[in-house]
Amino acid sequence: MQLVGTFATPNASKYLQQLCKHFAHKIEVSFDETTGRIPFTLGVAEVSASADALQVRFADVADDKRADAKSVIDKHLERFAFREGFSAMDWQE
Known about the structure:
With 93 residues, the protein is of the alpha+beta class. The protein contains two helices and six strands, in the order βαββββαβ. The protein has a single domain (3-92), classed as TATA-Binding Protein (2-Layer Sandwich), CATH 3.30.310.
């Protein structure tokens, strides 16, 4: 099942790079300023940044792993985007 999270922010590129650099310490990640790919064991996260939003897309995540997928992204962004009062992405399933 597809899972898509969106966070409206003018700092999308900054957060994309922070997420990717953080996870690159443990898994092989690819990214640039506007796109990233994080291959978690629970599913691959395709990350994109526009001028006004960060989007994370899991193309095929098992039903029992959806909460974990959301949590791993939200918990890390909560630390990176605390100045913006971030609590969770707007997730669509």
